[in-house]
Amino acid sequence: MAKYKLRNNITYALDGTTVQSTYEDILDTELKTSIPKDPGNTDYKDYLEWVAAGNTADAAD
Amino acid sequence: MALTQVKADGLTADLIDETKLADNSIDSEHYNDGSIDNAHLADDAVGVDELSATGTAGNTTYLRGDNSWTVPPDTNTTYSVQDGQLSENNFTDADHTKLNGIAASANNYVHPNHSGDVTSSADGATTIADNAVTLAHMAGGTDGQIITYDASGDPKAIGPGLDGQVLTSAGAGAEPAFEAIPASGTPNNLIYNGAMQVAQRGTSLAMAHDGNTNGFVVDGWALQMHNMDEFDGTLAQVTDGPAGFTKALKWTTGTAESAIATDEYVMVRHHIESQNLQHLNWGTSDAQAVMLSFWVKSSVTGTYGCSFYSGRSSGNRVINTTYAISSADTWEKKTITIAGDTAGSVLNNDADAGLSIIFPLAAGSNYDGTNSSSWANYSTANYLGAHAQDGVVTTGSATWLITGIQLETGSTAGSFDYKSYTEELAICQRYYQQIEGSNDNVLIGAGRSSGTTYGLFSVPLAVPLRASPTLSSIDWSFFTATNQTGVTATPSIIKWAAHSSVLSLQVAGLSSMTNARCLSAYSNNADTFTMSSEI
Known about the structure:
The complex is a heterodimer of chains A (61) and B (535). Chain A is of the alpha+beta class and 61 residues long. Chain A is built from 1 helix and 3 strands; from the N terminus they run E-E-E-H. At the A-B interface, strand 1, strand 2 and strand 3 of A face strand 25 and strand 28 of B.
């Protein structure tokens, strides 16, 4: 298991079945946190540096 | 006929006088022996050569009575008179001793008593009476100076200050100083939580090379260790500090690092948002200086580094400074002035870090190989440049404490910008907030169920968060009018806004929910839900 794992998230419309939007965030599998893909988030910056160093996050389920 | 012969008896006695004798016509045989008496010698007529004395006449001989030229037998005889040999008023050793004890120009003076403002008895100590020294009797100083006392208790003049400055006390053990203050009357500390008051996460954190390598205890002040092999210790908020401060950040080394390798460092750092630094005009010709002041205490004396790392719109900048800890385990105040950076690109105007203040505790040569004593482009080698003392990290049980940190515009340190705990907490919560659970009784937020497995809810924030936050995983309990379920999950963020005090989240993995019901999200098992927008 890599330090990071991608996660796909879905929001539904009020009917509870119609997909309204999808978005991705990142799970830190060691610290058990979720990291938004916000350029201002320092954990996301750390993730990008981790990727730039040649690492690959686990794919989303 | 000419007279050719005259017989002696033909001449009358005494007939021939000197006029009848030719010059030089009488030689010595014509004098009777012993006939020339003193009257027939002219004054000064007899010279040395006419004397018959033996020896040689000269400037070192004299004519002795035995008609000889002789050198005097002695020209420098010292004559001594023995004690008591003078017949009258004898000069004794006792007299000499007495006279020898009298100073030059001594007189027979009797010291009088003094009365009045300055009193004395005979030649005893003089005493200045209470309230006797008026201003007129004090030594002159410079206009505008005041008198204080130094560490030895001696009076000392300080000042004069500059126009508009105020006199500020630095507490016991430090002399007051004239300092500038802004027009508002109080300095503007660009640093938050510099007095180490707020510690939302707790008051102690165990850190280790193979565990927590980057963490907070006191809000805003993180300790980071990099590539350490053996090092561990405890970061804590402690009740300690110099006068005026009750809390401090403290690092205590547990297992020491045996040696600092080239790629290792340990540091404490604080970030300041770029948008809060715009008035400094860094990267322009109007760049403003800043002054950092802080109190520090350590069991290890020596020269420590302090780096200023500035994130810019293009190319980051660094300046390295140092401070010295002179006395072990003693609070010392330090001030560091940083010139405004007129070079480099301008500061971004956003919520990212525009300036990091870094206190290295150890630095390998990869990070302190270059000392940039003036602003320079960032490189790995000048990141922690000028740091020297690694002893806190390489010594078991070593300690390093800091508090009272202030960064202000200008080159003169003002008094500390004390904020109330409420004010300081609110600033800290821009970067980190948490909701502490208690069993399953603490509401995190309210919302609605979405489908059968999702819960959507909004979390009220104490203040808007700086950035979309990193969220922790906790045990959740969800309640609707018809359902109750729990799950351990890490929420995702539906909506964050820079100016909003509401954070909208979604948790997946719920079970058997009914769509579109009002929902309450609780922390279960007393878990603490954290939202981190640390810079």
